[in-house]
Amino acid sequence: MFSFFTLCDVQGWLQRHKLPRTKRMLPTAKQIRGTIVDALVNQVVVYPAAMYLAYFHLVGGLPDAHAPLATSFIELWKTFIFAETFNEVGFYIIHRAVHESSFLYKHVHKKHHNYVGTIMIAAEHAHPIESVFANVLPTVGYCLFMRVHCLVFLVWLAWRSWETFEAHSGYCYKDTFLSRIGMLHAHRCEFHDYHHTVNIGNFGT
Prior knowledge:
Structural class: mainly alpha
Number of strands: 0
Strand content: under 5%
Radius of gyration: 18 Å
Number of helices: 8
Shape: globular
Order of helices and strands: HHHHHHHH
Oligomer: single chain
């Protein structure tokens, strides 16, 4: 996903969907290199460790690999609605807390706001504490505690990942066909981009 949005920037593709940027909003090469390191540390160390601790110390082990897979539309719809609600409420509470507390903002959340105008990889640019409590736990919490089937969880995780990466991409596709049929997250791109560029409000949907 990062490659696609980077190509859009480098090759000048889809620039009519690019959100406005001033010079102070553009990331530096050093900042991007640091974020790539953060992303590797998060993906290889922080997220696996958080998931291990959550599964084995909060819910007592991995889900049953042989559990029946619920395939009815209503059951899947309920799972995704509850997972989305858990994520939205959890993220809002943590995100607002790290803004309301000057200590937490300075020592934890300010790192993420080094990106004034975000690019997709900025979604990974976060303090490890924030990565766990604002990103991992709200995203996986419902599926974790309700022991949702692994395949359903992976579909939810893919959708949730795309949502957060697109929201940080700096591109807003609200006038496109895919956005009109609900396959993209244009509303979230505008909403979260305002939060970064102005650094007030819009803590969560």
